[in-house]
Task: structure prediction
Amino acid sequence: MTIDVERSVETRIIKSAKPVRILIANAKGGCGKTTLATNLASYFSTQNKKTVLIDFDPQGSSSQWLAARPDSQPKIHGVAAYKKPGGQVTRTWQLRSIPIDTSHIVIDTPAGLHGVMLNDLISEADIILIPITPSPIDIRATTTFIKDVLLSPPFRARKKIIAALANRAKRNTVVYEKLELFLNSLRIPFIATLRDTQYYVRASEYGMGVQDLVKPQPKDKMEWKELIGWLDTQIDSLSDKR
Result:
């Protein structure tokens, strides 16, 4: 007797979680976008998060930072998006080369960010962080930039999580007080102040974040605790919506 055994084949589709995309942006140059981007990427990687750092700045500072990163540190996947892809490789394909298990994407941007590129990056972002240094010029430039962001079509179409932070700031100074008043007057949260210290320069030289140093400074740890605490809350809210 021949027995026909019918086997059902079950196909399992495993859908990977969508990574959170954090855009570091300000049209004003010299406000510390790369410092913030690299330190964020370094922090996430040390928390066992599969992290990607995308560098849109033609200076390639984030990419250079990654090249200097020691093998002993957790790996961060880099995308030099500022480079023109060769041959038939398009920039869209280049950005799609992000590893499938990526959980956090940090995007560093160039000075003078505006127009189509700004709209495209806002459209792709989940969270927008705007670093500002304490000077009258930076405050005026950032006012215009924030207005451009809030009025951009992709932001108006789908509101993004957005916040500002003071960077390279010295507390208890007149210029910092003016910056603090300015940030508190915005229609977006003012979430943290990162101090002006050479420890960021020292860490950057070796492809690390300020918290990766052998002896991280208590002041820096406290400032980053505030920033990361806010970010974790926002990332959790995004996860609940997905």
About this structure: The CA atoms of residues 69 and 208 lie 6 Å apart. The radius of gyration is 20 Å. The longest strand covers residues 161-169.
